[in-house]
Amino acid sequence: MAGLSFPKKLLVLPVSMAKKTDFLWPRQPTWCPGCGNFLTWQTLAQTLADLGLEPAATVITYDIGCSGNMGNFLRTSAFLGLHGRAIPLAVGIKQARLDLTVLAIGGDGGFLAEGTNHLLHAARRNDDITVLLVNNHLFSLTTGQATPTTPKNLLSKTSQLFRQAQLLNALALALVSGASFVARAFVGQSNYGAILAAAIQHRGFSLVEILSPCVTFDPVYTFGWYRQHTRLLAKPLADRRQALLKAEEQTPLWTGIFYQG
Ligand SMILES: Cc1ncc(C[n+]2csc(CCOP(=O)(O)OP(=O)(O)O)c2C)c(N)n1
Ligand code: SF4
Fold this sequence. Notes:
Distance between the termini: 8 Å
Strand order of the largest sheet: 2-1-3-4-8-7-10-9
Bound molecules: thiamine diphosphate, iron/sulfur cluster
């Protein structure tokens, strides 16, 4: 594939003894009770510990937003950036320090509206970062305006302005841009941590679209809805084209690793 390539053999790094609790600040998050972000917070802390990573050698860059607020509750090296700009921050940090594990966390508003260009170019260049796109279908921190992923049947405060708008599909955009690892996960699925782990371990650009219910502003795409409508892929698709077709299906809504090149 085009862009940077990485040695197939993984570098052997010293394994840290850090535990899950070492990745958590001892303070209670301020998300609304029941918000999907709680599960990402807990699952990611466990995954980073399971991977033997060191909190100080793990850098997470954050967008503004409810998902971006995770930077106040996950204990790693961190940079809380501007809305839509967590990806270029992550790219810059990785370019300067190849020894660090670098992730970027942001919402569908940040990565698919304000900062879409950064997502596409990081995928195209195969930058060695992991992007966790927390899709709750809305600009939630600013109380629920429509983003490029807001389905037509979810009536947000600004839906009437965008009735004709085409939705953006994060996985499809990443796949056509050349991303070398593309996955989707629902925060409530049992192998959520395994999908995050595979993305973090992948050498090159990895994207995980995270289906994360906003229990305050989204009455449609609830935990129950996702449990009923998502289905797990048995294994990654054979090629990018097949992955693209699967990524665009809505019924069922597939989760799992779609493509790894
Ligand atoms: C450059 C810039 N534009 C707009 C805002 C206002 N703003 C702050 S949070 C936010 C919504 C965030 O939505 P999203 O990225 O989807 O994350 P969520 O809150 O849904 O997790 C917006 C529009 C900002 N802070 N900076
Ligand atoms: S507004 Fe939505 S996304 Fe934000 S903390 Fe509350 S439930 Fe979570």
